[in-house]
Every structure is written in structure tokens, then in C-alpha cells.
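Hi C.,

You asked whether I'd gotten around to modeling the 160-residue construct. I have! Everything is below, sequence then structure, no commentary in between.
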Amino acid sequence: MKRKVYIETSVISYLTARPSKTIIGAAHQQISRFWWAKRFEFDLFVSQSVWRECAAGDPDAAQRRMAALEGLDILTVTEEMIGLAEALIDKRLLPANAVEDALHIAIATLHQADFLLTWNCRHIANPVVQEGIAEFLVQKGLFLPIICTPEELLGGVEDE
């Protein structure tokens, strides 16, 4: 059985962006493209939230992001997910300006993803933040998916 991966917007953004002028940005783009080529080893899904974020902004960039989403399962955002995201903010596990990040975590959690794939290391793929969120979720009987970057998840794919 394939592992379930919730893809957060930053991965799609790096995957489809024009070439970065920074070393780290260029590395994230290359790693994202390499991981994307291996994506068929996983069951991938995004949410309406990711879809909305990808559709926003520069029309050319949005078109590239939306093209990358073609064929991916799109999950509906429920009231329960919104409530969980709000609780993460209310408990100060994430800052008030990270509502979308909290929603991504809530969606991946409640859809029982194995992995939440992101390049957002400030609010999502941050071990200190994850520790607090995981403890909070355990108290609610929920499991925090493994949150990682495409680089980290490359260890879970077969080399050709």
C-alpha cells in the first residue's frame, strides 16, 4: 500500500517557480523536481486551501502551479479541520499570522496522512513547533503526520 502524502503549497511553488537567484532557493527547486519525478510511489493529495493558494498571485505563476495540481486528489476542508486549526492558534502552538499553516496541519492530521510535505520550516517543518502540536494532538487522540521536506522524503523512494 502506498503511503499518503499531503502536499503543502510551498512544495508546488518551488516545483513550478522560475529559476531562483539564491543557492538555497535553487536547491529547493531542484530537490522538489527530483522528488516530483518520484511522486508515483505515493498517494498524493492537496486541499482546497492549497488549491486556493496556488491559484492566487501572478497569473503565469498561478497557471504553472495549477497545472502541477492536475490529477491530484483535492480534499474538502471541513468545519472540524477549521476548528482544529483555530485551536492550534488559540493554544499558541502557531502564531496568529499562521492560520493557513495551521489549516494544512489540521487537514493532514484529520485525513490521516502519513506525511505532510512542505518547505515551510518556520511554522510547519519546525521540530520545536511540531513537538508542541504533537503533544496537543495526542491529548485529543489524534496523530500528527510526519512533517518533512521533499529532501527528507527522498529517502523513502527507490532509486532507478
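If it helps when you're writing up: The first strand starts at residue 3 and ends at 7.

Thanks,
B.
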